[in-house]
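pls design
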């Protein structure tokens, strides 16, 4: 070959190599126990202090705690475990329980489990995230808070593919947890409309409704009664070091819940935050 042509071909090859994107660097999961996934540009941002409360403080969800903690511990130990969906009443500790279970697992076996948060709007990038986590030495718990889908939203197909695993299969070191106020992750009127206008109603909604079925573990959360609400308030008050007579604490908690129109763990937490501020109590923080 003409040396000039060979030299030109080599220069072209080198130029193309410089223009080609570099392969993504493997994430450094040793930097923290929790990360937030950002798809553009793709990166896992470490979170040094996760906003959470100890699992013992979560009241009124004893059965839910047992189910999720057992499943998470099995996964952290390298045993088979299920993807989990936590659904139901607002403010009853769904996301708090996921973060608390992660902390409890790492307290029992330090460094055993990484928590990776993915935002709802980034669900379409899940396959890319899984490719980066596949083969990592640490087990990874992917967490999506307040997951739901609206009409004409096709992102649920990406999630369904991930839960099924495709031909590659879900990475053995990855588990997916989601919270939602909806059991089937979509509005009831959307399901009913699909059913009423379809030639074959059962087949028309099967693809969307079956998304929930791909979570091996369903955990329901329901509205709490007044005694449970008092237990939540008293537990948070003790944790903050607030020393008030029980009757006064409960009376103020009832007044607060009436103004909010609900009783829940979130309302109890907001009440204690307000009370601590009024009393000048700083509290232990949430990390």
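designed seq:
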């Amino acid at each position: 070959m003409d040396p000039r042509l060979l030299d030109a071909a080599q220069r072209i090859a080198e130029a193309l190599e410089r223009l080609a994107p570099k392969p993504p660097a493997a994430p450094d999961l040793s930097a923290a126990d929790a990360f937030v996934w950002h798809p553009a540009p793709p990166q896992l941002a470490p979170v040094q202090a996760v906003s959470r409360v100890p699992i013992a403080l979560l009241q009124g969800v004893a059965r839910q705690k047992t189910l999720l903690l057992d499943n998470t511990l099995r996964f952290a130990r390298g045993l088979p475990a299920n993807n989990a969906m936590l659904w139901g009443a607002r403010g009853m500790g769904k996301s708090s329980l996921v973060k608390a279970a992660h902390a409890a697992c790492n307290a029992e076996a330090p460094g055993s489990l990484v928590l990776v948060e993915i935002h709802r709007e980034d669900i379409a990038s899940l396959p890319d995230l899984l490719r980066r986590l596949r083969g990592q030495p640490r087990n990874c718990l992917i967490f999506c808070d307040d997951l739901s889908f609206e009409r004409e939203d096709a992102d649920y197909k990406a999630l369904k593919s991930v839960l099924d695993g495709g031909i590659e299969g879900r990475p053995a070191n990855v588990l997916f947890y989601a919270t939602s106020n909806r059991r089937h992750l979509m509005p009831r009127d959307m399901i009913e409309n699909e059913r009423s206008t379809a030639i074959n109603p059962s087949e028309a909604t099967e693809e969307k409704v079956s998304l929930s079925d791909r979570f091996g573990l369903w955990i329901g959360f329901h509205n709490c009664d007044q005694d449970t609400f008092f237990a939540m308030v008293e537990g948070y008050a003790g944790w903050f070091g607030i020393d008030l007579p029980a009757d006064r604490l409960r009376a103020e908690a009832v007044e607060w819940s009436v103004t909010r129109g609900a009783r829940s763990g979130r309302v109890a937490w907001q009440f204690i935050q307000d009370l601590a501020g009024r009393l000048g109590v700083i509290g232990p923080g949430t990390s």
